[in-house]
From TrEMBL:
Annotated organism of origin: Apodospora peruviana
Assigned protein family: Belongs to the GST superfamily.
Domain (GST N-terminal): residue spans on this chain: 6-85
PROSITE patterns cross-referenced by the UniProt entry: GLUTAREDOXIN_2 (PS51354), GST_CTER (PS50405), GST_NTER (PS50404)
Top-level taxon of origin: Eukaryota
Protein name stated in the entry: Thioredoxin-like protein
Domain GST C-terminal: residue ranges: 94-232
GO cellular component: cytoplasm
CDD domains xref list: GST_N_family
């Protein structure tokens, strides 16, 4: 169980949506921590590779023990510091609600977010339209129905939950990148029109201070543009 004596160090980079998950959970739980920024534009130092041999962010140092992988870090923190984010698994209906959250996150990440990676290499209008159609289709099939009772957050909650901890960084990027035409704006228009539960939820999540508090809009927009240009150049 987490305590006020815990010493936490988060190795992170605020540009990274996976690391952003750890920031959301730490902010929501009001856990003090030390933030160490890892430069992702240069090779990882031997010092950082000793902390995380995978060389990725985030990594969490929890009282001297290293935990890696964003979902594992975020779930560990939500379990160690019980809160509104996750019901206890032994509470009535708790295990089931946790399974619903897991299914929602799985659908969002593997079906919807996964389909967006193709935007990075889509060149023609036809290719872009095909990605938008697949992404909207994935939302309608697997995500929209799971948000029918969102109020405005998952499972009828008025506070964010672990579902938003694990998807919020991608929701805010969806709003921001379509607004700046880094992702096609027709993706936002189609989602708002065809998947109203989803779009209402996306907007509520993006407006939440635990989600937008560390979000550096300009840096994310410019960084994503640069990444897309690099991937398109490599694909030529
Ligand atoms: N599965 C990992 C993914 C983390 C990840 O891909 N982080 C990226 C930044 S967004 C990274 O550290 N990239 C460094 C590199 O590839 O050199 C997680 O969920 O923590």
């Amino acid at each position: 169980m987490g305590s006020t004596n815990d010493k936490l160090i988060l190795y992170t980079n605020r540009r990274c949506p996976w690391a952003h998950r750890a920031h959301i959970v730490l902010d929501e739980l009001k856990i003090p921590f030390e933030e160490v920024t890892i430069d992702l534009d240069t090779p990882r130092t031997a010092e950082y590779l000793a902390i995380n041999p995978r060389g990725l962010v985030p990594a969490l140092d929890y009282n001297g023990e290293i935990i890696i992988e964003s979902a594992i870090v975020a779930n560990f923190l939500a379990n160690a510091y019980p809160s509104h984010l996750l019901p206890p698994s032994n509470a009535p209906g708790g295990a089931l609600q946790r399974a619903r959250i897991d299914l929602f996150v799985d659908a969002f990440i593997s079906k919807f977010q996964g389909s967006l990676f193709k935007l990075f290499t889509a060149n023609t209008d036809e290719e872009i339209d095909a990605v938008v159609e697949a992404a909207v289709g994935a939302v309608l099939k697997e995500v929209e129905p799971k948000l029918a009772d969102a109020k405005p957050f998952f499972g009828g909650s008025d506070k964010i939950t672990q579902a938003e901890v694990l998807t919020g960084s991608f929701a805010i990027r969806l709003v921001t990148l379509t607004k700046h035409e880094v992702y096609p704006s027709k993706l936002a228009t189609a989602l708002a029109e065809k998947a109203p539960n989803f779009w209402k939820w996306v907007e509520a999540v993006s407006a939440h201070p635990s989600v937008n508090g560390i979000f550096e809009e300009e840096a994310i927009v410019e960084g994503t543009k640069a990444r897309i240009a690099k991937m398109k150049a490599a694909a030529k």
